Amino acid sequence: MLKISKLVLRKLRNSEYFQYMSDFKSLIELITPAVVHSEEEFTTFNAVFTKLDEELRVDKGSVLTEQLQALDLGRDNTWRAIDARIAATLLCPVEKEVEAAKRLERVFDLYGDIRKISYNEETAALSNLIGDLEEEANAGFVTTTGLTKWVNALKDQNIAFKAKQNERDTEIANKNSGNVKAVRIKLDPVYELIVERVNAMVSLNMVTPEIENFIKELNQKIKTIETTLAAREGRRDDGEEEPTEPEVD
């Protein structure tokens, strides 16, 4: 007799958990809770699921992230403009400016393309690069190539980015990150109770074709999740992946 397969819910990341419960909810609604004698349980399930949805919307990130991305794009563009200005100056007819550009090019080459590294690494690299450009040995070359205002702008942009990043990190740190876990703990037993009710109907030979189809569809979703979990465990054992969301204990 085909029953609903066992799924270890605590192994699911929040996004996976929400998607599975959403699919489960849709399948129950399709056959109606009355068919599986779970009207009361499903009412409770719906209420807790709604709470889960609300908590996950809060947990998805900070509204400051978009501002942070804009600030990062700004400093990237300024860095790119300075780099392009140095490259263009290397081709100019004024020997003094060419020599200054060569010196600055060497400084830039030490840091590579800072746009391709992480936020924290880029902030540190820009701070060091700007510090190098402000040194007495290089400040004259910056002036000669007409880059003083651009370097100052890059410095201001980098400081503004770091300040916004600190603001965002503080906001995220102050969120009650345990809320999603608390809701999952409430939703799990309701889900398990409905699954138990359906499996009991199988044992009692009370299964209709629509219930059988419900079980088949749900088991297919469970199989897909188990394949994902197995692949993740394999990558983790090989040291190739770190979890982006903790499992729920």
Provide structural commentary.
The protein is mostly helical and 249 residues long. Helices cover 75% and strands 0% of the residues. The protein is built from 9 helices and no strands. Helix 1 runs antiparallel to helix 9 and helix 5 runs antiparallel to helix 7. The protein is elongated, with a radius of gyration of 29 Å. It starts with 13 loop residues before the first helix and ends in a 12-residue tail after the last helix.
H/E topology pattern: HHHHHHHHH
Structural class: mainly alpha
Main beta-sheet annotation? none
Instruction: Tell me the fraction of residues in β-strands, as a range.
Output: under 5%
Q: What's the number of extended β-strand segments?
A: 0
Radius of gyration: 29 Å
* Cα end-to-end separation: 32 Å
Give the overall shape, derived from the CA principal axes: elongated
Mean pLDDT across all residues, rounded? 90
Unreliable stretches: 240-246
Tally of individual helices: 9
Helix content: over 70%
